[in-house]
Amino acid sequence: MNKHIYCRHSHELEIPFFDVDPMNIVWHGNYVKYLETARCAFLSSIGYDYTEMARQGCGWPIVKIDLKYIRPARFGQKIRIDMEIVEIESCLRIAYTIRDAASGEKLTRATTTQAAVSVATGEMQFQTPASWLEAVKRHPTFKEAV
After folding, report:
1. Which residues contact 105 (CB under 8 A, 6 or more apart)?
2. What InterPro entries does this protein map onto (predicted)?
C-alpha cells in the first residue's frame, strides 16, 4: 500500500566549503542541517515557522531521524532537497530525497519525525494542534487523505 503524501516541497542549496572534509566530501553530520534548512523553508512557506509554533504554545523536537547515504555530496555542488510530508495528524513526518540539482542523481534519503510538545508543561501532545493542521493545508500542493 502506498503512503499518502499530504504535500511536497523542494529547496536548493550549494554545498559550502566549511561543510566538507579534507576530501571535499560533505561530513555526514551536515546532512541533518540540510534537512533542517529545507524543513524551515517549508514551514515559512505555510506561515508556521518555529516562532509561530512557540506562539501557539508548542515546541516540535525531532524524536526520530533516519539517514541513508547513497552517494557523497561535494564542495560547490548544488543540491535539491525534495520533501514529502507523509504525516500531519499525530506528528510531523517528512520523507526527504537529496539529489544533485543539475542531474537529479539521488544522493541521500532520510526521514524525520517531530512531535508536538506543550511549551507550558513539557508534555508530548498526541494530537497535533488545529493551528498546525490549518497551516499545512494552505500549502499549494496539499491533498487530503482519502
Report:
1. 71, 99
2. 4-hydroxybenzoyl-CoA_TE, HotDog_dom_sf, YbgC/YbaW
